[in-house]
What does this fold into?
Amino acid sequence: MAERKKLTTAHGAPIGDNQNSLTAGPRGPLLMQDYQLLEKMATFNRERVPERVVHAKGSGAYGTFTVTNDVTRYTKAGIFSEVGKQTDCLLRFSTVAGERGAADAERDVRGFAVKFYTEDGNWDMVGNNTPVFFVRDPYKFGDFIHTQKRDPKTNMRSSTAMWDFWSLSPESLHQVTILMSDRGLPQGYRFVNGYSSHTYSFINADNERFWIKFHFKTMQGIKTWTNAQAAEIVGQDRESSQRDLFDAIGRGDYPQWRVCVQVMPEEDAETYSINPFDLTKVWPHGDYPLIEVGIMELNRNPENYFADIEQAAFEPSNIVPGISFSPDKMLQARIMSYADAHRYRIGVNYAALPANQPQCPVHTYHRDGNLRSDGNSGGAVNYEPNSMGGPVEDSRSLEPPLKVSGDADRYDHRDGNDDYTQPGNLFRLMNSDQKEQLFSNIAEAMDGVPERIQTRQLVHFYKADPDYACGVAGKLNLTHVSEQVATLADLSLADLIVKTSAEAYSEVATPEASLAKAAD
It folds into this structure.
């Protein structure tokens, strides 16, 4: 009897169990990280047949990843199986907030998404050029993105909405500090680092789990623009980053990144001083140093932008044996949301498009749907289990159990969480020139924002470092509120929100205004 084909996801990853969903215990609720179940359900929902919501403006190129260091003690992933091994990859850079026609040289986070075409299916590392993010609970992701997009009334970007949300969400301070620093305006995509931001996991041949974070360190060096320089660039070339990348590869100046990981033993997560699955936090390198795993090089421009880059679909749910997820709430939600966005944007059969097609055999029971361009599996049966010779699960790809504890509830992610120490540490690492840029960039971005919202945000700066608040207040000509900021810093967030509401806030008069009133 001929050996039956191995059952896979649409992206080529082997399926170890096609009978049982992932649950928290034998009677517990389903886990959102069961990407195989989500793919199966979402594909079925679309069997009967836009611009990206975020990261719409992007550029990309093909390249290779080469292993330079043995990390097989941590992972059994085939991509890392031996030093010198090479794997094809596709990297897409992007801005986050702007539409497809937006300029490249704008202050924004840069998307950094890599698709590795491994022998065990596609592995996607979907990250940014920052190691943290603005929110840590997926409930707030859509709200945050709305503040970065166009106001429903004016159809223009709103600084007030942006700072109102950030000032009401202190967990955003770490990312805001990075965004408003010199690194918030890179000269081009070749000059940014990439980060997984999320915590993932490695699983080794002995079924041991390690928590990890990925770092892609640019070997071209970090290069940035000031606001004034960027304004001049935008006036000349709205595609400055894309042009720089395309031209560099075209002339053989191939950009490279040193790929590293931080590795945390699974049991450390239970006692570590911070929540290692909090997307607004970094792991100090003194506790978990960088370990180099390889070099990524971009060496081939796309032949057709639409086919190779616009239709490319990256998603955290694309993992391979030896690389997996973590309890990071934002990652858990993105396991579903990214793949579902692709099904909506480019169709349920997006995995079969050339840029997304795995370089390994794919055997699924998915059928039909719009734009089905292959043979639709001919007359083969479309259900499992079956006795007709269809593909079957392979238990070798199963993962070790993940320990969970606690009651199911909606826990307050701000309760007992320190959102100020790490932003303050980052601020204190900056030299005087970088601090001056930070103060000026924030003041420029706050232009026209109501004083009560500016004051509320100054409180967060103050709690990170009083000099941080003082510097920004000086640029905003709000030094007269310094005493009020110090007083408000002693309040809880709930009380701060009340005190800086439109109904309760009363502007502190400047000395000049007081003199003018006395003269009247």
Notes: Residues 329-346 form the longest helix (18 residues).
